[in-house]
Amino acid sequence: MDFQKIGAAFVKQYYDLFDQKDTRSQTSNMYHPTESCLTFEGQQFQGSGAIVEKHANMPFANLYRVITTSDFQPIPGGVLIQVLGQLRTDSENDKIMGFSQTFLVRDVDNNFFILNDIFRLLIHNV
Amino acid sequence: MDFQKIGAAFVKQYYDLFDQKDTRSQTSNMYHPTESCLTFEGQQFQGSGAIVEKHANMPFANLYRVITTSDFQPIPGGVLIQVLGQLRTDSENDKIMGFSQTFLVRDVDNNFFILNDIFRLLIHNV
Questions:
Q1: Hey, CA dihedral for A8, A10, A15, A17, is it positive or negative?
Q2: A126 contact partners, CB below 8 Å, separation of at least 6
Q3: CB spacing of B120 vs A80 below 8 angstroms
Q4: Distance of CA A4 to the CA centre of its chain
Q5: Which end of chain B has fewer CB atoms within 10 angstroms, the N or the C?
Q6: Strand, helix or coil at A71?
């Protein structure tokens, strides 16, 4: 398994879908119905249903995002990913903010799922 | 398993050892001899020997570190951790820098090891 290639393809596919309001809900297929965990700014959500509902309620439409670094490491049956970058929402006057996001993407019954997703804005870190 | 408690105890123990030059090499016991991977600013190291050698060659003695957030998620046999914070080395005139570090800590033969460690300074993200 080429973990770098899988990881890079995952990151592109995920943010391409997530950053457009029209396609954001399609990321639901990338989360496992029961096993996936999202920690978003400290709030915890479990299962693709709860995770996608959280995403749907976010107070912005499209996101403009620049990835600074994506680091990948192999794990048994999957890839660990740490992404750093900057984003801005489409709200007027919104500031550019740094973010850090960790994904653990793993094979479950021959399908890759985001089993773990931890997201934090870097607003308090600089 | 209380993943929050294990994760928080791990983070404290790890940085307490790492941040003092005199105790830094003791983190070698927390990495697996062959399976652990470190990605440090994009450079990859495998096994506790190579990882601790990298740490020993870092160009500073003690580190002053503040943790802003530590997020924990359970994984089979372990904990996924994303840490954000700020650090400064003891070099004169050194700047305070943000960092993001992801750990995957997992049980191997009844011992917890850092199997995955990804570190990035946030210097290009803000």
A1: positive
A2: A98, B86, B98, B122, B126
A3: no
A4: 17
A5: N
A6: strand
Nearest CA in chain B to A84: B125
CB-side exposure of A41: number of CA atoms within 13 Å?
Answer: 8
Q: Is B70 on the interface with A (CB under 8 A)?
A: no
Q: Which residues contact B22 (CB under 8 A, 6 or more apart)?
A: none
pTM, two decimals, is 0.95
Task: Give the whole-angstrom CA distance, residue B45 versus residue B50.
Answer: 6
pLDDT tens-digit readout, A21-66: 999 999 999 999 999 999 999 999 999 999 999 999 998 899 999 9
Half-sphere exposure of A3 (CA within 13 A, CB side): 16
Q: How far is residue A43 CA from its own chain's centroid?
A: 15
Please tell me if residue B42 touches chain A, with a CB cutoff of 8 Å: yes
**Tally of CB atoms within 10 A around B118:** 25
- Chain B residues with CB inside 8 Å of A125's CB? 68, 84-86, 98, 122
Residue with tokens 């600074």: A68
Average pLDDT per block of 10 residues along chain B, 126 residues long: 91 96 95 97 97 93 94 95 94 87 93 96 73
Three-state SS sequence of chain B: CCHHHHHHHHHHHHHHHHCCCCCHHHHHHHECCCCCEEEECCEEEECHHHHHHHHHCCCCCCEEEEEEEEEEEEECCEEEEEEEEEEEECCCCCCCEEEEEEEEEEEECCEEEEEEEEEEECCCCC
The interface predicted TM-score (ipTM) is 0.93
